[in-house]
Design goal:
The complex is a heterodimer of chains A (115) and B (116).
Chain A (H helix, E strand, L loop, with lengths): L4 E3 L2 E4 L5 E6 L6 E7 L6 E7 L2 E4 L8 E4 L6 E5 L8 E8 L9 E2 L3 E5 L1
Parallel strand pairs in A: 2-11
Antiparallel strand pairs in A: 1-3, 3-8, 4-5, 4-9, 5-6, 7-8, 9-10, 9-11
Chain B lengths: L2 E3 L4 E5 L4 E3 L2 E3 L5 E7 L5 E7 L5 E3 L5 E5 L4 E6 L8 E8 L10 E2 L3 E6 L1
Parallel strand pairs in B: 2-12
Antiparallel strand pairs in B: 1-4, 3-9, 5-6, 5-10, 7-8, 8-9, 10-11, 10-12
Classes of the chains: A mainly beta (115), B mainly beta (116).
Chain lengths: 115, 116
Amino acid sequence: GAGVSQSPRYKVAKRGQDVALRCDPISGHVSLFWYQQALGQGPEFLTYFQNEAQLDKSGLPSDRFFAERPEGSVSTLKIQRTQQEDSAVYLCASSLIAGPKNIQYFGAGTRLSVL
Amino acid sequence: AQSVTQLGSHVSVSEGALVLLRCNYSSSVPPYLFWYVQYPNQGLQLLLKYTTGATLVKGINGFEAEFKKSETSFHLTKPSAHMSDAAEYFCAVSDNEGGGADGLTFGKGTHLIIQP
């Protein structure tokens, strides 16, 4: 596709439910990132993939958060037993090649509301 | 560890006036610096970036930023504001210190308001 696509755009979950958020990066992009953006804040890094390898997951806030990218393209961020503090916009970004100076292209995000 | 400080959560300017959005960073190694813009219900769009070379960087929509190492700053400017510039602006930093993580560290953002 032309850009990074995320689905669903909006998700409402009851506390305790599991959710799965999907990211389709730009075709051929090696690097994929997940960020969490709380209301009124800047995005915060969650995790990073280079192809199918998860090279850094230091930003995941708890072991309820899990991300995968099994074939090196589409990625899923899963949150188990959601809590109210998980309410945020989850942004996915991809970049063509690895390296910290490369441009990251962002999707529109998934807004998660936990009731 | 790296960090970004954006002074002013809200900045209001008149249409046609100078836009100045401030960003200061901390990094123990030479940083890579970015400005992104976010319109409501949209993803972040890159305005410009500094990696190496010329310290004055020109971006899209008439924006530019100057990397000042001595001041650890990367302020964003535009000579003449347009109504369409109203949005949230984020400064971000990355560097080579993060091991396998090429993730960006963002500031908290500055909401730019354009007064007619």
